[in-house]
Amino acid sequence: METLKVRDAKDVEAVVRAAIAAEEPLEIAGHGSKRDIGQPVSANRVLDVSALNAVSSYEPHELIVTVQAGAPVADVIAMMDAKNQEFAFEPMDASVLLGTTLGQGTIGGMIASGLSGPRRVRSGGVRDHLLGGNAVSGFGDAFVAGSRVVKNVTGYDISKLLAGSWGTLAVLTEVTIKLVPKAEAQATLVLRGLDDATANRAMIKAMGSSFDASGAAHLPVSNQQALDGALARAGAPQQALTLVRVEGIDVSVAERARSLASVLSAFGAVETITDDESAEIWAALRDVTPFAAGSKLGGHAVWRIVCPPTAGGGLGAALRRETGGEVIYDWGGGLVWAAVPPATDAHAATVRAHSAAAGGHAMLLRAPKEVRAAVDVFQPQAPGVAALSRRLKNSFDPRRILNRGRMRRDDNP
Question: How much is the pTM?
Answer without folding.
Answer: 0.94
